[in-house]
Each structure stands twice: as structure tokens, then as C-alpha cells.
Amino acid sequence: MSEEIHQRCLVVGATGFQGGAVARLLAGRGHRVRSLTRRPAVARPDIAGVSFVAGDLGSRDDVMWAFKGATHAVVTMPLEYDPLRIETYAIHIAEAALESGVTRIVYNANTRVPADTAGVAAFETRRIAEAVLADCGVPLVVLRPPVYLDNLFSPWNGPALVDEGVLAYPLPADRRVAWISHDDLAVAVAAALFNDGLDGRVLDIGGGQAVDGNELAAAFAEGLGRPVAYQALPPAAFEAALAKAIGPNAAAGVAGIYHYMAEGPDERLMDGDPREAEQALGIKLTSIAGWVAAQPWQTWSSRPL
């Protein structure tokens, strides 16, 4: 399979940050990119070359229309954590991909997933979607990223990080995480979409070396050129703050991952050596310090860097 030949890619979730990074990269490489959105009027204007069509994953007809003519598909599920609804979305995607003759689906689970059932909606709904897509008859590659560096470049983290040198996040300081950026996720997705020999693979991807909270702060200090200290936020406080931005149901779904990590049943879930996935995909991802140094942190600062 060659990326040199421009393909027709359906990106499910392109109005979100992760799907948006994927759509932007694919369009920038000359592929024709389409996405389905319930609100085309507010589709991402920063993603040039992407066609947004109106529709809903809950409508089989809408999904069939969006997939018409697609050669490849990338799927990131929305911040929805109802099992029946996610299963319905996945069934519609699977049926549309099969009928349209899609060559390969890359499913971004958007999180690592424990080996055993954890009773956490953020994990179990993604496990359901993965199972549906794996059974649909279209070649599938699954990518399971850990936690996104871009979460720290935000109005919630940026000002305290830049002005006060405090990196606050709802993970215990001793948890090791192979942090990855949205842009590196997109690079991994593109490789999974077009490289040969990957069908059926499930890859735990991650950027650079896994680090604990204090090592993460040290990498930020290196990138920013000033001292940074890590502060572990209580997951409940994180969930309450997040609920104000995305609503209580979505916030509970997202925060479920951090409650699980804080309770410690699987301390190595977001850890691991990313080199295996890098070798399988034929890519090299960015170091944390390199990513930090490349960001426009002055956006969040009230005083000059």
C-alpha cells in the first residue's frame, strides 16, 4: 500500500482535537479528506482541504453517505460513554466501511485499554467499538495512545505552568506515562493507514520515553528554560472543573481514566517502551522537551518569557 498515491480518506472525529490533527496531516499530504459532523457550520476552519458533511453517527444513512467513495477510514469516537450508543455508532461505521469497499480502518482508541474488564466507561466503550470494527471484515489497525501532551497546552494548565512553574495534572506523581502529542498521533495514524504488514495489529503507541510526574516537570523545565514543579491534582477536582467546559457526563467519562489510574489497579497501563510501535510503524516520535520547546507558551503568559 502506498501513500504516494493520493487516497480518499474518511476521518471520523475530525472536529475534535485528535481527529482534527489527523485530518490536517492527511489533507496536507494531498489526500482527499471528508468528515461527518452534526454541526457543519462550526466545523474546524483551521483544517484546510477537508470536506465536512452534515450527519450523525447515530444515523446509518448519514454514515453510509459519508463513507461513499472512501478508500481509507480513520475512526476516533466522540466523548460519548454510553455502551449501547457507542456500539450503534461502531456498527454503522463498520457496515458503511464494508459496503464502500474501504481498504483499511485505523481505529484510534484514544486511550490505552486494560487487558481485563475494568468497569470504567472510558475503557469499556472503546473496547466495544474495537470489537465491532475488528469483526466487520475490513482490515483494521488499532492504535492505543496514553495521555496527550496537548492537554497541558490549555487555558487550564498553561497560565500556572508558564507564570508559576506549576505543572498540575490528575495523575499520581509516581505514575509513568509515555506522553504523546496530537501531531505525533497523526503521524502514527498516517503510517498505520498506509504502511504494509499492519492489518490486525493492536499497537500501544507513545512518544519518547515514559516518565513520572517529576521527570515530566524536568522535561518541561528543559523546554521552557525555567524551573517547573509537578503537582498531582485529585481526579475529583479535575472532573468538577472539566464538567464546566464539556458537561458532567462527558467529564465523568474522561475523568474515569484518572480515577482508575489514581486507584492503582494497573500502574503500568500508560507506561511501556514506545520503540516497538515506532519500529512497526516506521516512524520516530518527538521527545517531550522537543515538543515543549516548539509550543508558543507566551499565549498563556501574563509576563514575557
TrEMBL record:
It comes from the Bacteria. InterPro entries: NAD(P)-bd_dom_sf, NmrA-like, NmrA-like_oxidored. Residues 7-254 form the NmrA-like domain. Belongs to the NmrA-type oxidoreductase family. The keyword NADP applies. This is SDR family oxidoreductase. Keywords: NADP.
